[in-house]
Amino acid sequence: MSRYRVTCIPGDGIGPEIMAAAKVVIAAAGVDIEWIDVEAGAEVMDKYGTPLPEAVLESIRETRVALKGPITTPVGSGFRSVNVGLRKELDLYANLRPAVSIPGVKSRFENVDLVVVRENTEDLYAGVEHRVGADAAESIKIITRQGSERIARFAFEYARREGRRKVTAVHKANIMKLTDGLFLEVAGEVASEYPDIGFEDRIVDNMCMQLVQKPEQYDVLLCPNLYGDILSDLCAGLVGGLGVAPGANIGAEAAVFEPVHGSAPKYAGLDKADPTALILSAVLMLRHLGEGAAARAVYQAVCNVIREGRQVTYDLGGTAGTREMGEAIAREVARLLTDQSAGGG
Ligand code: NAD
Prior knowledge:
Elements: E1 3-9, H1 15-28, E2 32-37, H2 45-48, H3 54-63, E3 65-68, H4 82-89, E4 94-100, E5 113-119, E6 129-131, E7 137-139, H5 145-161, E8 166-171, H6 179-191, E9 198-203, H7 204-213, E10 220-223, H8 225-238, E11 248-250, E12 255-257, H9 276-288, H10 292-308, H11 322-342
The structure holds nicotinamide-adenine-dinucleotide.
Nicotinamide-adenine-dinucleotide binds at residues 14, 70-73, 83, 242-243, 258, 261-264, 266, 273-274, 277, 315.
């Protein structure tokens, strides 16, 4: 069996508790991982003079894979978000956020199975903004052919690899004819290289309405940064909210897997937080590593424990703590894998 080296950033707030639960689950899946634990966030500022020490980046550059808990970004403190810093420094240009209905998780829909592919480096998030005198401010929306092409290619390659049928490009090219127009033009060009995958486009406001009315019609959503940020939270809401929403930031050289949610400081240290989103992020990581069987077992175990509903956290209607839910999922992973090997499968 391969032995992987994976950088682990437990994060702060509820991060360390959900990370401990995720590690127990991954160990039960029999994947041999050497965790390289590194620290980032406000708490390391005094020690390193930065919330994102160079050692963290060096470790991820070397291992090329990281599992990350949430990190608090103090409002107005002046230091830039560790999350944004990581994406920029490692050029993690693709943000992947699946939204898949899990039976037993309360939500308005039962049959959502889509994934938001968000461009992670350009658009209004490039950080090019300035004040114009006392009473005005400008922010520059940057869309490039290269940035649009690599995210479009990522979306189509992902669709092909995962057996998905259709990519929908999301834009506002009717108004922003040059920027969103370029994004849409490039998406169309890349689409023509993938005749086996359907392609369509939607204006972002219409997309929002369509998603809350008939989300089952969508498959892979290809979005520039800002629309992708907003739509991925909308899509998390379609399948039961932040507690169950996983994510990945992927670049050519490295990938960082993390839940969509933040550090939920009010639950820190209380053994209350739902570990599901981080465990499902670990499922994405296991698939990325090529550990398909382990990924399937963990995913199935999460579904089984949630469907059964006895050992789940408060947000899923239960009374279990983070640790208890993690241990229940780990036991179920072990049971599934034992059944499988006993059945020869
Ligand atoms: P949040 O996601 O931390 O929490 C919002 C609410 O969602 C919580 O109060 C809680 O009710 C619920 N929640 C979130 N995760 C949960 C879980 N695992 N189990 C159960 N309930 C859960 O959002 P926020 O309060 O806006 O942000 C808190 C901090 O996290 C901020 O400093 C923010 O900058 C940071 N943040 C970090 C990341 C990241 O590290 N990628 C992402 C988002 C926010």
